[in-house]
# Entry
Amino acid sequence: MARVQPEQQAPVVQRVRIRYTKRGPLRFTSHRDFARALERAVRRAHLPIAYSSGFHPHPRISYVSAAPTGVASEAEYAEIALQKRMDPADLRRDLDAALPPGLDVVEAVEAQGGGLDERIEASLWRLELPGVAREAATPAIEAFLSADEVLVERMTKKGLRTIDARGPVARLSLNSDESGAETAPHAADTDSCAILDLVVQHVTPSVRPDDVLAGLRVAAGLEPPVPPRVTRLAQGMIAEHGEGATPSVTGVESGNGAGPSPAAAAGLTDPLGPDRGTAVTA
Amino acid sequence: MSVTSVYPKLEQLLPLVKKPIQYVGGELGAVTKPWEDTVVRWALMYPDAYEVGVPNQGVQILYEVLNEQPDVLAERTYAVWPDLEKLMREHGVPQFTVDAHRPVGSFDAFGVSFATEMGYTNFLTAIDLAGIPLDAAERTEDHPIVIAGGHAAFNPEPIARFIDAAVLGDGEEAVLEITGIIRAWKAEGRPGGRDELLLRLARTESVYVPRFYDVDYLPDGRIQRVIPNRADVPFRVHKRTTMDLDAWPYPKKPLVPLAESVHERYAVEIFRGCTRGCRFCQAGMITRPVRERSITTIGEMVQRGIDQSGFNEVGLLSLSSADHSEIGDVCSGLADRYEGENVSLSLPSTRVDAFNVTLANELSRNGRRSGLTFAPEGGSERIRRVINKMVSEEDLIRTVVTAYGNGWRQVKLYFMCGLPTETDEDVVAIAKMAHEVIRAGRAAAGNKDIRVTVSIGGFVPKPHTPFQWAAQEHPEVIDRRLDLLKKAINSDRSLGRSIGYRYHDGQPSLIEGLLSRGDRRVGDVILQVWREGGRFDGWTEHFSYERWAGAADEALAAHGLDLAWFTTRERGELEVLPWDHLDSGLDKDWLWSDWQDAIAEVELDDCRWTPCFDCGVCPAMDTEIQIGPTGKKLLPLAIAGTRGHVPSNHSYEADEA
# Structure
C-alpha cells in the first residue's frame, strides 16, 4: 500500500530579522513558550510565513541565543522566512499587534545574507540587586574581576557542572547612570539597589548572569537578599575588547532619537545595523 | 472595597519556582476589568495544574459567559504546585487569580469545576490558601460562596462539608441565574446574611446546598435517608440542561496561554450528551439527551476560533464524535476549507467503525497519518454485551484493516479491566484481539511496519450509571489480570513485538472509587489526606495509595466502616445511595433494570435510532433529543489564502434543528 506523500511547501523568497522584547511579567516566558506564542501570532497576523516540508510542517523561524526564563530582555532576535515578499515595517506592526503586550516586536529589517548568529557574540546585561548597597557591590566586582577564574557550579541536565564564570566576562561595572533606577523594582530602594552592567561573551558552555552572580558570591561573598532582576539590554559584536574599555560609540544608534543606545554605550554593534539592512524601529 | 493585586509580592517568589509563566496570566482572550465597575464577582477554578486547567472547556465557557455581563467579573485560578504553595505560605501570599492576581477570598463566588474526584485535595489547598475556612459551617458573610460543578458534582457528598453549594449539569444558564440571585441579594443589602443567600439558591431547585439536608444512617452503616432539614427547600435537586447549543456558541474567544498546556488546539463541542448507553460511562448517562450543534454553527465557531487563537489544530469534541448526524459533511467541509493551510483537524472519541477511518482520511488529507484510537473497552464479545459496547470482533478487524490499508501505521485500542462479571478469560481475550489486529494489519499494509498499542485501566463504578450498584474489583485481581494479559500478548513474539502495552495499576482506581461513590463520612478521609500533604492526586508521581489507605483506615473506623465497604461491596436494590436526592433525570428503576440486563448480557439500542426505552431523562427534565440532519452545508465562508479578519460584531444564527 502506497503511503500518502506530504505536500510540498512554497519556497522562501524573503527573510526578515526582528528584535523583540520580554518585558514585565512576560519575562517569565520560557523560550519554548515564546516560540509557540510567536507561531500563533504569525497565524493571527496572517503573515505569509514559509513552512518546512514533510509530514510535520513547521513555520520557518530561527532564533539566536534566547535569554533564560525569568530574565527580561530588550534585545532578543529571530529570523522569519516568508513565502511572499512583505515590507518589514508592516511585518513588525502586524506581528507586534498580534503578540501580547510585553512581547513587543520593536525592529524588523530584511536580511541580506550571512547568518544572524555571525553578528552576535556577546550580550549586555543589567543586573539589579535590591537590598545590596553600592558600597557593598564595588569591592565584590573588584574581587571578581581581579581573579583569573571564578569556578561556579550549575545544575544542568547532565548533572552538576563546574564552569568558569570569569573568563567570558568582558566587562562588569557599577552602573552610575541614574536612568537605570527607573527599571528597579522599587524606586524608593534605589539607595540600596546596586545596578551592575555586565558584558559576557557567548561561549560554550554558556555563562549566564546567574553564573556571574554565583561568581560574585564565590569570589566576594556577595549574597543578594532577594532574587536579583536581570535584563538583557543588547546583543552584538564587541567593538573593543578588553577590561576597562571606555564606552565607545562604535555601534549604531538605535534611530529612535534617544541618543546612543545602551548597546553602543557598551561597545556592542547592532545585529540589525544598516551595513546589511535598514532598521525600522517602533 | 477595593482589592489590590498580589502580583508585586508574588513576583518576588516566581524566580524560585518551576515554570513561573503559569502564574503570570496574560493569555490571549483573558479579560481584566476594574474591580469597582462590577457588582457580582466570580473566581473560577479548575483544581489541577495550570497546564491541565487552562484548556478546560467548562471553565472557558463560564468565564466568557460571565464576563459578557457588564456588571459581572470572572477571573480564573488554578492549583499551585507545592513549591509555590510553600513559598506563598511563608510570605503570606493568598490564592490568587491569574487574570488580575486578585485574592480569591475577595470574590463573591468561588466556582470549582470537578471533572474528576482526584482534584479534591487541590481544592482544599486553594480554599485554605485563600483564607476561606475549610468547613463551610465556619464561613461568614466575608467569604465567597463556594460552589462545585462538573461531573463529580453529581455526587458531591464526600466534599459536602467543604462546599456551600453544588450545581448539577450544564453551567451556561446556571451561572447566570446564580449571578442574578447574588446581584439581587447584594442590592437589597444582603438580607439574612449568608444563610439567606444559600436559601435563595436552594429554592431554585437546581442548586444543591448540602447544609440544608441531613443524612441519617442505619446501624449497619448504610444510609437510612437524606432529608431536608427545613421545609422550604426541595426534596430533590435537579440537574440543569442547556438546550439549543447553537444559542450558546462558546468559547468564542478561546484562551491561548503562553505556557504550554495539555491541549494545544481550538476545541468545538459538536454535540453534548450520548445515548449509546455504555453502562460504565457516567458522562453518557448524566449528559442526556443528545443535543447537536448544527453544521453551520460548527463551521462558524471553527473559523472564528482559528482566526482568534492562531491555533493550528482543531478538535471536534463530544462523547462520540462520529455520531453527529452530519459528521461527514462537517469533516469534508473543514478539510476543504483548510486545505493547504497547515491546520490539522482531529476527531477524538470515535467508536470502532470503518466509517470513522473514512472521516479520519478526510481530516488528514495533508498526508500525516500517524495514529488512530478506538475504544472496544472489553476484550470478549461477552463482556462487551455486559457493558453494552456493541462492537463485534469482525467490526474491529474490518476497521483496523481499513485504517492500515489507508496508510495509518499506528492504532491505539482502549480497554478497561475489572468490569462487572469479568473473568480472566475476558481480559486475556484482549491479547488474541491484538494478535488478530496485527496479523490482519500486516496483510493490509503489505509490510510489518505497523503497530497497535493496547491501553488498559481499572474500571471505577460511578454514580448515576447502571453500574452504580456494582462491586469494584480488588486491585490485586486487576493487577494479576493485567499481568496475565501482558504474558498473553508476548506469548507470540513475532506479533507481540508490534504491540505496545500500557496499563495503570489498580490501586489509584480504588481511591477514585472511594471518592466517586462515597458519602459525607468520606470527607474526613479527604481532610486527613490533605493534612498529611496530599496534593495533585491525579498525578502518579504525587499520588500516594498508602496515604489514602491509611487515612481511610483511621477516619472510617470511627463509623465502623472501611475502604472496602465503599468500594468492593456490591449494593442492593433497596439501598439508599448517597446521591439519590440528586436528580440526573435517570429513573432509578430504569438504571436497576439496565443493571440486571448487564448481568444477563442483554444489549440495549441507542434511542436516537430506536424507540425510547424510558431512561426517564427527557420527561423528567422536560428535554428532547436535538439532532439533525439539517441538510445544510458548511458555508463557503472563505477560500484558503483570501481570508480576512472576522468582524467583531459577528453574530450567530440559531439553527432550527
